[in-house]
Amino acid sequence: MSKKKFVITNNIRKLRFFADEMTQLDLAEKAGASRQTIIALEAGKYTPSLEMAFRIADVFGVSVEEVFEFKVVEGKK
Amino acid sequence: MTYKSKRTLTTMIVGAALYIGYIVYAMGKYQTDPENIKSWAIALLVFIGISIVAQIVLQILFHIGLAVGMAVKEEMKGNGDTDKVTRNLNSSMVEDEMDKLIKLKSDRVVYIGAGIGFVATLIAFALGISNVLAINILFGSFAVGSIIEGIVSIYYFEKGVHNV
């Protein structure tokens, strides 16, 4: 029997690069988060709330789907 | 190690040091005054007051040290930008949803510790153990609970946390 695993990945590093190499500090200030949270997000150590996800997408001027990706991984139990 | 981990670690170390100091004091006091519950209540209140003052002083010193450390780091990079240091410091101190989630998870440890301590205190009363010992069991459970809370917080700050 397989067990579904949900994984949320993000493209924040790539989006920062294309936003004129925006720093983590700049993004943190614009999104209303701490720099540590942005670092954790980029490293996949934190899954943000829906509100934070929208705020980050808004900073880059893109949709949430372009920042975050939702994947379902089938795993064996 | 992040700013928040360092701050939690500092608070935890000072809390643990103060509690060890209290244990040493309490062991001496128990030899001379084992049953006077009023004097023990006063001693605990004084200790709580000392702890609060010590933590406030320590947080001030910690932030001064951190600001100096950041400024020196920037200077060594050949970039004496004080504005960047201020921005970094302000950004580190922002308490956002990740911090609240970590606090929520780590606070549970304190509640569990306090709950176990309360039951242990009731058992101590039921077994006829002295009031002084019982009150110290309760106090100790809070102290140990808050130390473990610090460890849990640092774990989540370093390893990450997810909304599940």
Notable characteristics:
heterodimer; A: 77 residues; alpha+beta; 434 Repressor (Amino-terminal Domain); two-stranded antiparallel sheet; 2 strands; 49% helix; elongated; B: 164 residues; mainly alpha; 5 helices; 0% strand
Can you put this structure into words, describing what you see?
The complex is a heterodimer of chains A (77) and B (164). Chain A is 49% helix and 23% strand. By secondary structure, chain A is an alpha+beta fold. Chain A has a single domain (2-76), classed as lambda repressor-like DNA-binding domains (434 Repressor (Amino-terminal Domain)). In chain A, strands 1-2 form a two-stranded antiparallel sheet. The longest helix of chain A has 11 residues, at 50-60. The model of chain A has no long low-confidence stretch (mean pLDDT 88). Chain B has helices at 3-32, 37-76, 82-93, 97-126, 131-159. Chain B is elongated, with a radius of gyration of 20 Å. The mean pLDDT of chain B is 87. The A-B interface holds A 25, 28-29, 32-37, 39-40, 43-49, 51-52 and B 2-4, 84, 87-88, 91-99, 157, 159-164.
In short:
The complex is a heterodimer of chains A (77) and B (164). Chain A has five helices and two strands, in the order E-H-H-H-H-H-E.
Number of discrete helical segments of chain A: 5
Low-confidence stretches of chain A: none
Q: Radius of gyration of chain A over alpha carbons? A: 14 Å
N- and C-termini, Cα separation of chain A: 6 Å
| Biggest beta sheet attributes of chain B | none
End-to-end Cα distance of chain B: 24 Å
Mean pLDDT of chain B: 87
Oligomer: heterodimer
